[in-house]
Design brief:
heterodimer, A: 238 residues, mainly alpha, 2 domains, transmembrane helix (chain B), transmembrane (chain B), AzlD family protein (chain B), Brnchd-chn_aa_trnsp_AzlD (chain B), membrane (chain B)
Amino acid sequence: MTQDDFWQGVRGGFPVMVSASPFGALFGALAIDNGFSLFDAVFMSATLYAGASQMVGIELFGHKVQPWLIVLSIFAVNFRHILYSASIARHIRHFSAVQKFFTFFLLVDPQYAETEKRAERGEPVTFTWYLGFAMIIYIPWQITTLLGAIFGQMIGEPRAIGLDVLLPIYFMGLVLGFRKRDNWLPVVAASSLASIAAMHFVGSPWHVSIGAIAGILLAGCLPLPKRHEEPVTLEHEV
Amino acid sequence: MDSSEHMQLIYIILAAAVATFLTRIGGYVMITQMKRIPPRMEAALNSVPAAVLSTLVAPAFVYGGFDVAAAMLVAFVVGLRVSSLWMLAIGWLAVMTIRYWSL
């Protein structure tokens, strides 16, 4: 019974693993390009296990951005998880404290979505099922990170094979993914213009903090929305 | 990277890991304690990802050179319709095409 649950989880997580793997490899390769060692890249994948924020982290580190801003940015990109853990609380009441610890550590977007779907179908959300679903994503995430990093070490000049455009395009995809959020356009416009100006007048890495603060301040001052929105999920995100 | 810089990176990763874990347990803690985030702070926090990410996109577009800007433009147009993996593939193809033809 419990073993069945585990394998059911593994089967459910398999397609997620397949679609996340290119991003794991991309993260590994670009981490090396931004000054990480093989160990650093896998260490980050193993302890954060949050793809989009890992990409943000390596890019900011590569730009020599101040450490506090790197950590804050990663926190902010992952902030949506707060909504997930609030929402799955009712399904995991029967887990032990240790099980809850691992449940939250492994709570990536597709894991959240599948847990909700399973509860909605009336199937039991067991820890073994949850762990099976998580492990088929978590373990390959480490392996693809390592493979990507090894590949990254073999590349002399990333520009020659076009690796340098991948992060800006990846981030652009993320920005577009947030477009349903309140005040998205004014925030993006303010941060973009402020960062372009700061890059010109102040220089890197200040363009990141100055641009970000411009958009955040604007969002804090704009009129508050009336309704509450669903959390925005990143479809491929680990 | 010297060893003190490397230690700093390890600390950054550890701090980021703790911060990430806090986001993953935070909602659970909040819902069991029934506290709310002030709405203006929530609005500001909600804007942080788009704000930070825009600063990584816009300067690359303006100062990255013609080939990067053109590839980003192509990726932007397809990005409104396709998944991000396709966006990356098409953007990469665009920049490689431009670099190949301008050699």
